[in-house]
Amino acid sequence: MTITDLLIPTYRQMLRMLTGLLDKAERQASETADDLLSARLRSDMLPLSAQFRFAAFQAQEAVYRLRGEPVPASLHAVATEGRNAGDAPGSIADARACVEQAITFLDAVTPGALDAGAQLPIALELPGGLAFDMTGEQYARDWALPQFYFHVVTAYAILRSQGVEIGKADYVPHMFAYLRPGTMPGKTGSST
């Protein structure tokens, strides 16, 4: 499996899952859905709105880095919005637009586009002065995917903690494409 084959489908399916969570949150808390974006798991963590922005940022940042391209200022702005989400959480529509823009970007990535980046030197400099040097392969495995999943899982956990009725099936809806016929719990045999 190549880096492109691993990252792009993973990012797309999990970002689509996030839009599904937004849909459920909106349906279940229609009048207060935007208030959910300020919710946090703990006071020292960023709010829900930041989790959506950082998931969208992480997925796109990896593409730029693994193609050896600079991350554009417009994408850095998404990360800045995430860091400032406590003061300006935005709306469900804003979160959805951010995620959908990332999906559209990923849909345009051509097959094999990231594969040459496996051996690229990646210098990752974080706020606060931390700096990491690694190859593209190490970056994809040890940073890009774990960071992306951190924000995706945190968004899911915040919504659950706020009473949005979601479960494992909402987290991995893409798995139903692989469902063996006749194995869905609660389904009875077909009638003739």
TrEMBL record:
InterPro entries: DinB/YfiT-like, DUF1993. Coiled coil: none annotated. Pfam families: DUF1993 (PF09351). Signal peptide: none annotated. This is DUF1993 domain-containing protein. It comes from Fulvimarina endophytica.
